[in-house]
Design brief:
With 126 residues, the protein is mostly beta strands. It is built from no helices and eleven strands. It has strands at residues 3-7, 10-13, 18-25, 33-39, 46-51, 58-60, 68-73, 78-83, 92-99, 115-116, 120-125. The strands form two sheets. Strands 2, 4, 5, 6, 9, 10 and 11 form a seven-stranded mixed beta sheet that branches. The N and C termini lie far apart (40 Å). The relative contact order is 0.31.
Length: 126
């Protein structure tokens, strides 16, 4: 059974950094576009970042551009989200997900993704 497992979340002070990882199991996602979404309490899920299967294309939400970096290691079937200069408003559960294609028109739409992880909590204190 295909699974995506996130790790690396935790509690950090504002201005700090965290690196999230998403490891695949049960099948390879090396040919899938991968994305990160987040959901804060009482808010809708929102797009954070995405990367094409080759790593050659990426997209970021305006709120994280310049602070977060998405990357992947297909040999390890793992995707990363490096988060720097964290702010309290970054507090959320972060989800990793996989999509068969990287299309600019749909890469930010959560309903277009085929697989989802269980999420990892990120809490940024002020």
């Amino acid at each position: 059974q295909a699974q995506l497992v996130e790790s690396g979340g935790g509690l950090v002070q504002a201005g700090g950094s965290l690196r999230l990882s998403c490891a695949a199991s049960g099948r390879t996602f090396s040919r899938y576009a991968m994305g990160w979404f987040r959901q804060a309490p009482g808010k809708e899920r929102e797009f954070v970042a995405a990367i094409s299967w080759s790593g050659g294309l990426s997209d970021y939400a305006d709120s994280v551009k310049g602070r977060f970096t998405i990357s992947r290691d297909n040999a390890k079937d793992t995707v990363y989200l490096q988060m720097n200069s964290l702010k309290p408003e970054d507090t959320a559960v972060y989800y990793c997900n996989a999509k068969r294609t990287f299309t600019i028109a749909t890469i930010r739409r959560g309903d277009q993704y085929d697989y989802w992880g269980q999420g990892t909590q990120v809490t940024v204190s002020s």
